[in-house]
């Protein structure tokens, strides 16, 4: 257990302020006439198409490599090396974009906005990790994802997060996924990209709030393994479910578990599950009653969530820039605020009528009613489902990684005596040949 | 204890050096940040001050050179700091990477073989873990649900969104005749169609008083009634509120908050004490209630207390404080917004959409501030919106605001509102005269449609009331004048020896005069004064009472009273 020490706290504070200090603001051009000719403002060119396909190719190759290293070679050092390469390439070299996590929103927007066509490379980035996870478990998380890699790289002194806390915090990721999908479907915002905590580090630039947020996550990540992956990542939510179905996945031991218990604390992400033991008889009776109650509660939670989401439609709608603009224009027109904003000035310059804007904003609000209902029902379903899964007895005879939580990092291999035996046999085989 | 290996010691030293550099770079970055955010703005303020000092003048070359030099210095400094931040950021990143690598290596070199603890009761531990996890998820559910409930209760400030309506969007004029939906009831005439209005009560003993309820904030506006709800407003310099009471029990059902607009807050309006901050009486269209305050802030609420919209009509320029009451027409709220001295083009007559607050139509009025209230009356099958101001009595079409007729007949500080009785519109110029206008003309009817003028004075505050045969005028010092409607001849006058700001009312053939001391004098309507009785409330009263089926609602300075008892259906027609 790590105790917070004053010096550690001081360092953390220094780090946060220091990171904020990177985000200096630019300043306006001179008001005086000079000889300098200002260039015409132009929109930046879109990234060259070829790089997108190179990225997709690198993603495919690295996923294949990761699969081989995780499931066949079972070599943590090589996995770590591949992870560092992916961090350097997808993170620092390619600026952390495109990434499968943000691609969720592109896919959603394509489904809801007929005027938006998703680039093929983005679709590949979204789909490939899902396909690999479906067959081989979360090899993408373990070795390819740059967001996971940057957290893995800073993990120095892992501490165990209690299961109950992990269960509670994981709800945030589901909520984040739901909100990300809703806002993308409504064309309101790509919230997952906007609040990507590490993209600022990859680009060595960004607004200070996000840099501080990312800095805090990295600081926490020195002691809590991959906090973003475990408690926030919306893509991880999808991968968790697919990983449960995977045909091949990480096993701690290459052969049979001898229940030596040496791997018990091997996983910094708390993904290793112990063999289960039979419950006392009276517990079965209680569990049956609890299960029946939770089964009844599930539709209630879905309904209540849907209703709550509908009632929150006006708050949710505020995320949409059109709705915020309508509100601002209304406040300005009725002298409820002073001054104007760049957005309201631009609106007036376009000559669009405020009635038209209000009508559009009202329509959006109504659409958020349906979206909010679905989001609320989803959250209710997740919570109800989580309570149900926590009330069902699992049967496990050996120490094994939880298929949903295992990030395929390969740390646990070295803890297994059977793995050492396998490696020894391999080395002897090499010598004989 | 074993001596650490050379490799471990080397890595440890590397970690220490990298850590030291990390701290150093962080300190430099923080120093740079302080320089940028604290010292930089000081120079920029100086530059801004120099620019302001020169604005509008004729700067010399030396002054311009000084400004340019300072501007250049600031920019150079900013560029330097930006560059420094970038370079130091890179160095920081490098030192952090070295620190992390060294830290990981230290951990690798210092790795201990795994040592499982003694096995606990795994089954019990797993049960406990599952149980605590369920509680954690439940706690998450509570936090989410609580947060959502709080947001729902607060309500998002989407003021422009139209309220969701079911059924007819507004009450008909026939419905309004059974209520007291605005200042002085239907048509603003102060006449109730009910004949079962109480005639006896006593505030000291509670006799005849159904209930009494405290009103949180002061206000001189009158209560309005719709079925089982009583509405009124109250305000101070800091707060504007709308109240809804249960008409049968006197329970305060809800309080609606109307924000004070930034312009009004900045203007620090200080109305005359007799006006106060909430002088205007509310109005309802049967679906929504509307309130306006001395600040010019107007708001709409549904009957459940949900604020539908609010807006500012601008801070009114009014000598004694804005006091015109609201009227409703269909699903619109009518606002007479007279202000200024008449030549600033600031006076308006508005019709606002009741659901959204948007302006449906507005009419510019070249008139000064006034204190009268608009009334919508039906004249020969056509609706007319009557307003009085200096110098005009005006009639507009409530559908689109188009002017129908106007008569030049008033002057000064006009406060008593118009009434329509016996086929005539009665308009009063305080202390001077009362004019009767035939409201059947078009355009300027000053010379053609004034039926008669009564020159023997007129009330300065109270509106007149009429039974169709006679008009009854009440001056603020207590003098009642009764005039024949046919020709304006004074029939009688009587001194009540009291002070009045509440306008007289008529119900069941009886006149009700509520004095400022809370004494209600009841007299028989007709060609001669015949007093029927006096009732004391025991509290000072400034507002006009409201009359509905079997009851009178009176606002005292601090309390709202309901006089009467069981509801009876004894109507005049």
From TrEMBL, chain A:
The chain crosses the membrane at residues 50-71, 78-104, 116-137, 171-192, 204-224, 291-310, 368-388. Residues 248-277, 397-426 form the 4Fe-4S ferredoxin-type domain. PROSITE patterns: 4FE4S_FER_1 (PS00198), 4FE4S_FER_2 (PS51379). Keywords: 4Fe-4S, Electron transport, Iron, Iron-sulfur, Membrane, Metal-binding, Transmembrane, Transmembrane helix, Transport. One of its GO terms (molecular function) is 4 iron, 4 sulfur cluster binding. One of its GO terms (cellular component) is plasma membrane. This is 4Fe-4S binding protein. The lineage of its organism: Bacteria, Pseudomonadati, Planctomycetota, Phycisphaerae, Sedimentisphaerales.
Automatic annotation (TrEMBL), chain B:
The keyword Transmembrane applies. Residues 239-491 form the Pyrrolo-quinoline quinone repeat domain. Pfam families: PQQ_2. This is PQQ-binding-like beta-propeller repeat protein. InterPro entries: PQQ_rpt_dom, Quinoprotein_ADH-like_sf, WD40/YVTN_repeat-like_dom_sf. Keywords: Membrane, Transmembrane, Transmembrane helix. The lineage of its organism: Bacteria, Pseudomonadati, Planctomycetota, Phycisphaerae, Sedimentisphaerales. The keyword Electron transport does not apply. Coiled coil: none annotated. It comes from Anaerobaca lacustris. It comes from the Bacteria. The chain crosses the membrane at residues 21-42, 88-106, 135-163.
């Amino acid at each position: 257990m790590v105790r917070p020490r004053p010096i550690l706290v001081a360092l953390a504070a220094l780090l946060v302020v220091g990171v904020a200090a990177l985000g200096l603001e630019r300043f306006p051009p001179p008001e005086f006439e000079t000889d300098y000719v200002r260039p015409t403002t132009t929109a930046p060119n879109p990234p060259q198409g070829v790089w997108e396909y190179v990225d997709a190719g690198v993603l495919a190759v690295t996923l294949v490599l990761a699969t081989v290293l995780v499931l066949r070679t079972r070599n943590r050092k090589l996995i770590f090396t591949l992870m560092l390469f992916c961090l350097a390439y997808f993170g620092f070299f390619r600026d952390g974009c495109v990434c499968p996590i943000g691609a969720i929103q592109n896919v959603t927007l394509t489904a809801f906005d007929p005027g938006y066509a998703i680039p093929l490379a983005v679709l590949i980035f979204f789909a490939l990790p899902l396909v690999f996870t479906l067959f081989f478990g979360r090899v993408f998380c373990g070795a390819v994802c740059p967001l996971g890699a940057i957290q893995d790289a800073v993990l120095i002194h892992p501490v165990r997060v209690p299961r109950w806390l992990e269960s509670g915090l994981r709800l945030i990721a589901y909520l984040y996924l739901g909100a990300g999908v809703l806002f993308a479907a409504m064309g309101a915002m790509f919230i997952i990209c906007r609040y990507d905590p590490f993209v600022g580090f990859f680009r060595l630039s960004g607004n200070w709030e996000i840099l501080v947020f990312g800095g805090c996550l990295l600081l926490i990540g020195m002691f809590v393994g991959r906090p973003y992956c475990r408690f926030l990542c919306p893509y991880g939510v999808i991968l968790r479910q697919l990983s449960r179905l995977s045909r091949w996945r990480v096993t701690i031991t290459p052969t049979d578990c001898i229940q030596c218990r040496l791997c018990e604390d091997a996983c910094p992400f708390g993904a290793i599950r112990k063999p289960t033991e039979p419950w006392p008889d009276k517990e079965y009776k209680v569990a049956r009653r609890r299960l029946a109650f939770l089964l009844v509660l599930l539709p209630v939670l879905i309904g209540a969530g849907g209703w709550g989401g509908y009632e929150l439609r006006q708050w949710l709608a505020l995320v949409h820039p059109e709705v915020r603009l309508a509100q601002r224009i209304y406040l300005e027109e009725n002298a409820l605020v002073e001054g104007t904003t760049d957005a309201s000035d631009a609106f007036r310059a376009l000559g669009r009528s405020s009635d038209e804007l209000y009508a559009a904003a009202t329509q959006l609000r109504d659409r958020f009613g349906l979206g909010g209902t679905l989001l609320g029902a989803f959250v209710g379903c997740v919570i109800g489902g989580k309570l149900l899964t926590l009330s069902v007895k699992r049967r496990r005879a050996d120490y094994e990684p939880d298929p949903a939580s295992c990030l395929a990092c390969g740390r646990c291999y070295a803890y297994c005596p059977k793995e050492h035996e396998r490696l020894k046999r391999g080395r002897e085989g090499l010598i004989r040949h | 204890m074993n001596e650490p290996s050379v490799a471990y010691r080397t890595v440890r030293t590397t970690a220490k050096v990298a850590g030291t550099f990390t701290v150093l770079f962080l300190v430099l970055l923080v120093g740079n940040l302080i320089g940028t955010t604290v010292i930089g703005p000081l120079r920029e303020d100086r530059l801004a001050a120099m620019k302001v000092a020169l604005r509008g003048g004729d700067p010399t070359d030396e002054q311009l050179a000084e400004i340019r030099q300072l501007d250049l210095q600031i920019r150079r400094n900013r560029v330097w700091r930006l560059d420094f931040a970038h370079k130091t950021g890179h160095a920081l990143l490098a030192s952090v990477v070295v620190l992390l690598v060294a830290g990981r290596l230290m951990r690798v070199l210092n790795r201990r073989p795994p040592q499982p603890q003694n096995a606990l009761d795994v089954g019990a531990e797993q049960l406990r873990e599952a149980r605590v996890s369920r509680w954690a998820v439940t706690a998450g559910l509570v936090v989410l649900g609580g947060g959502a409930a709080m947001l729902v209760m607060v309500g998002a400030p989407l003021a422009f969104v139209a309220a969701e309506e079911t059924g007819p969007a507004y009450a008909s004029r026939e419905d309004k005749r059974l209520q007291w939906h605005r200042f002085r009831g239907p048509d603003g005439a102060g006449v109730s169609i009910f004949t079962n209005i109480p005639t006896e009560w006593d505030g000291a003993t509670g006799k005849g008083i159904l209930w009494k309820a405290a009103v949180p904030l002061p206000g001189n506006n009158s209560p309005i009634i719709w079925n089982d709800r009583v509405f009124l407003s109250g305000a101070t310099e800091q707060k504007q509120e709308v109240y809804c009471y249960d008409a049968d029990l006197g329970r305060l059902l809800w309080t609606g908050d109307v924000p004070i607009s930034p312009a009004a807050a900045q203007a620090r309006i200080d109305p005359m004490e007799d006006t106060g901050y909430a002088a205007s009486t509310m109005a309802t269209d049967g679906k929504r209630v509307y309130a306006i305050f001395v600040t010019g802030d107007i708001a709409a609420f549904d009957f459940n207390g949900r604020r539908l919209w609010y807006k500012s009509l601008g801070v009114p320029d009014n000598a004694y404080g804005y006091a015109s009451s609201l009227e409703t027409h269909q699903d619109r709220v009518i606002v007479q917004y007279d202000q200024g001295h008449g030549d600033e083009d600031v006076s308006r007559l508005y019709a606002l959409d009741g659901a959204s607050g948007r302006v449906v139509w507005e009419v510019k009025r070249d008139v000064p501030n006034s204190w009268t209230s608009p009334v919508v009356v039906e004249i020969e099958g056509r609706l007319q919106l009557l307003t009085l101001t200096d110098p005009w009595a005006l009639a507009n079409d409530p559908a689109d605001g188009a002017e129908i007729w106007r008569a030049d007949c008033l002057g000064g500080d006009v406060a008593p509102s118009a009434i329509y009785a016996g086929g005539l519109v009665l308009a009063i110029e305080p202390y001077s005269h009362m004019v009767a206008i035939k409201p059947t003309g078009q355009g300027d009817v000053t010379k053609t449609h004034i039926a008669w003028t009564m020159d023997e004075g007129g009330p300065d505050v109270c509106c007149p009331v009429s039974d169709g045969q006679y008009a009854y005028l009440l001056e603020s010092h207590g003098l009642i004048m009764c005039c024949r409607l046919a020709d304006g001849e004074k029939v009688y006058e009587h001194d009540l020896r009291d002070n009045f700001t509440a306008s007289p009312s008529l119900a069941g053939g009886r006149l009700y005069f509520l004095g400022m001391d809370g004494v209600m004098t009841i007299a028989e309507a007709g060609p001669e004064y015949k007093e029927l009785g006096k009732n004391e409330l025991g509290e000072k009263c400034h507002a006009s009472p409201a009359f509905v089926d079997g009851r009178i609602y009176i606002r005292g300075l601090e309390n709202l009273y309901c006089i009467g008892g069981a509801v009876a259906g004894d109507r005049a027609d």
